[in-house]
């Protein structure tokens, strides 16, 4: 009996942990599978998986064409090791997931196919290498699949799903945009093609239709403005009207339409996924409650002792005082049990970062209270209390010591050291920004989007890796960089006579090439910035073939038009959420209970203290009250600053408000198949009833 209760507690803790961290992995509920599930979600296992994913991606730095060349045997052994780790992780996942769910999951199939393709390609490449036959490592383009498809990367998958779901609407706008571009290109051919005009480089101006299409596409990005217009403008000022009309229609109207369509669809699908997470969390908390419930009269409840055991399993690192605070909130009337409504809020309670502090008096306040509380003492303490000020003072002290130490050397002088200190003191102006409410909203939003910036950083990494590998295969060795004093043939033309008198060579862009993985990333970053991207496209087209421009156009469409616009959409949504931010019901309950217990502390007392150094629920020592106010010794609590909430959490809270606490909601399978049209719980209920 005791063993069965322990197994139920372990399973309930798994459900609560999933609800807390928004995991939606369907796992088996047998005791062995639950223990394997705990191991699968352990931070060490996740860290090892990410390490080998990035190790596998970084192999491109050491493989031909390499930044730091390593023997083929070394890189191949590392790749095989990575693939074995991936296979082991996938096998572990198969052990905890029902068989029918595992084989229906597309991401598992993608991982298996990627492993098989990588091993096959590695074997073929190695065999051909033995006979000195040059071949292509075509499977390297599949390496980002591991970053996308493992369960740990659900945020990146969500971003890709947003792109996939947005593509149909973008396609319609893109087709209209292409129609407009082709029509303007045809008009340009008719207007300027027979004028015998020339560019500044002496080349024919607007006489080839495909080149006109490319030049006008570049004009949409403003990268060649006003250069592309000048030959026609010099011929007649009236021709400027053509380019003005083109820019208004295509740059301002169509590009704004792209952003509007991306934002509208991104917001719709984001809210659908967040709503799905909210239903999933609610359902998992109901499952955990059903495992632990007992009857108290006619009411199902969870006993206090059982609740404490559960919280210790789910959050073993929180302090005892923090755990008791959560119990007092869940069992407000101290009945000795927690009802269903309060239990369902446990995941939210654990997600709210409550700081536990120990208040202690300063030794000087105990030994010399009159001196410590004097106006002079208060003034000195107010001067040095702020963390940022302390950092500046510490830096100044360090600079003084360095100045004394290095005085006899010629590397540094006292003025240089003082300049560094003065620069650091200028940074104190950041406090002014944080003291203004409207500025604080902006700062909060910037902090809130940091996790999402990491997600889009992963998304960008995937796109960069794919395009970098393709670029190396297409353009490797076509352009070379030579030092300024080099006497090598065609050094001024980047080692290729096809670039003679080209903008690429005259701009000294020779170091921007696809000769290794690092250089490829730099080129792609420059293409993302957009400026002069047409010079790169023309340069690489000159050394290969004109269709090579399609590579650069494709990168611009994927990275700049789609991904950057989705990132802008998220920032817009983040600002809207931040401006409408209010405290959640759970946060209000925590703060109310803290004040009822007389264990609260005011925001203005703590805002400049060391509390933000460790936002986790740990116990800290806090020096006595600022000014002449006094605080009782003992424990106090404070909810962490709202600036550390993520936008996803705020959106999820919005949808959780729509779910009645007594409603158990749809099953886990129904939640996973939630259609975009299901906009409310009532809609779901009606669908289930049918």
UniProtKB/TrEMBL annotation:
Residues of the signal peptide: none
Any GO MF annotation of the entry: monoatomic ion channel activity
Cellular localization per UniProt: Membrane
Chief location of this protein within or outside the cell: membrane
Gene Ontology terms: cellular component: membrane
Domain of life: Eukaryota
Keyword Membrane: yes
Cited PANTHER family: TWO PORE CHANNEL 3, TWO-PORE CALCIUM CHANNEL 3
Protein name: Two pore calcium channel protein 2-like isoform X2
Organism of provenance: Aythya fuligula
């Amino acid at each position: 009996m005791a063993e069965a209760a322990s197994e139920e507690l372990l399973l309930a803790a798994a459900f609560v942990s999933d609800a807390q961290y928004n995991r939606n992995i369907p796992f088996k509920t047998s005791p062995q599978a639950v223990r394997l599930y705990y191991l699968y979600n352990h931070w060490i296992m996740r860290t090892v998986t990410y390490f080998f994913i990035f190790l596998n991606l970084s192999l491109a730095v050491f493989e031909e064409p390499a930044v730091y060349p390593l023997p083929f045997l070394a890189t191949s052994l590392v790749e095989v090791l990575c693939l074995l780790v991936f296979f082991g992780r996938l096998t572990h996942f198969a052990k905890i997931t029902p068989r029918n769910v595992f084989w229906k999951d597309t991401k598992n199939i993608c991982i298996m196919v990627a492993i098989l393709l990588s091993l096959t390609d590695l074997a073929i490449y190695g065999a051909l290498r033995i006979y000195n036959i040059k071949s292509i490592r075509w499977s390297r383009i599949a390496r980002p699949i591991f970053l996308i498809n493992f369960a740990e990367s659900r945020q990146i998958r969500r971003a890709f799903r947003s792109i996939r779901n947005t593509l149909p609407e973008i396609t319609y706008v893109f087709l209209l945009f292409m129609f407009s571009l082709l029509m303007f290109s045809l008009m340009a051919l008719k207007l300027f093609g027979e004028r015998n005009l020339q560019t500044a480089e002496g080349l024919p101006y607007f006489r080839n239709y495909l080149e006109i299409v490319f030049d006008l596409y570049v004009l949409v990005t403003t990268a060649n403005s006003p250069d592309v217009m000048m030959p026609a403008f010099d011929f007649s000022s009236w021709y400027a009207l053509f380019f003005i009309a083109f820019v208004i229609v295509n740059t301002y109207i169509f590009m704004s339409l792209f952003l509007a369509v991306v934002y509208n669809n991104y917001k719709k699908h984001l809210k659908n996924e967040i709503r799905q997470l909210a239903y999933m969390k609610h359902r998992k908390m109901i499952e955990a409650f059903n495992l632990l419930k007992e009857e108290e009269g006619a009411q199902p409840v969870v006993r206090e002792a059982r609740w404490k055991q559960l919280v210790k399993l789910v959050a073993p690192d929180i302090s005892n005082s923090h755990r008791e605070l959560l119990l007092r909130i869940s069992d407000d009337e101290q009945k000795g049990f927690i009802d269903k409504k309060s239990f369902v809020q446990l995941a939210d309670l654990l997600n709210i970062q409550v700081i536990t502090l120990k208040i202690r008096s300063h030794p000087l306040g105990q030994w010399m209270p009159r001196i410590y509380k004097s106006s002079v003492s208060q003034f000195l303490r107010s001067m040095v209390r702020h963390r940022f000020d302390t950092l500046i003072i510490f830096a100044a002290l360090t600079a003084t010591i360095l100045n004394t130490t290095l005085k006899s050397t010629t590397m540094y002088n006292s003025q240089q050291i003082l300049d560094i200190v003065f620069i650091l003191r200028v940074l104190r102006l950041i406090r002014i920004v944080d003291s203004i409410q409207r500025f604080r909203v902006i700062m909060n939003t910037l902090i809130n989007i940091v996790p999402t910036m990491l997600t889009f950083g992963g998304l960008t990494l995937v796109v960069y890796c794919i395009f970098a590998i393709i670029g190396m295969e297409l353009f490797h060795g076509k352009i070379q960089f030579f030092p300024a004093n080099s006497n090598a043939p065609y050094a001024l033309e980047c080692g290729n006579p096809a670039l003679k008198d080209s903008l690429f060579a005259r701009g000294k862009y020779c170091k921007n090439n696809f000769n290794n993985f690092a250089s490829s990333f730099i080129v792609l970053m420059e293409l993302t910035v957009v400026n002069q991207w047409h010079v790169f496209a023309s340069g690489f087209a000159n050394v290969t073939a004109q269709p090579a421009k399609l590579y650069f156009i494709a990168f611009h469409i994927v990275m700049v038009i789609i991904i950057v616009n989705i990132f802008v959409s998220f920032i817009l949504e983040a600002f809207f959420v931040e401006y409408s931010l209010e405290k959640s019901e759970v946060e209000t309950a925590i703060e109310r209970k803290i004040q009822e217990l007389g264990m609260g502390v005011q925001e203005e007392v703590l805002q400049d203290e060391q509390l933000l150094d460790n936002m986790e629920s740990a116990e800290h020592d806090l020096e006595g009250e600022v000014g002449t106010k006094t605080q009782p010794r003992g424990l106090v609590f404070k909810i962490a600053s709202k600036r550390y909430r993520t936008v996803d959490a705020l959106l999820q809270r919005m949808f959780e408000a729509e779910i009645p606490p007594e409603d158990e909601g749809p099953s886990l399978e129904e939640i996973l198949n939630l259609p975009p049209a299901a906009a409310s719980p009532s809609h779901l209920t009606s669908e289930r009833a049918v």
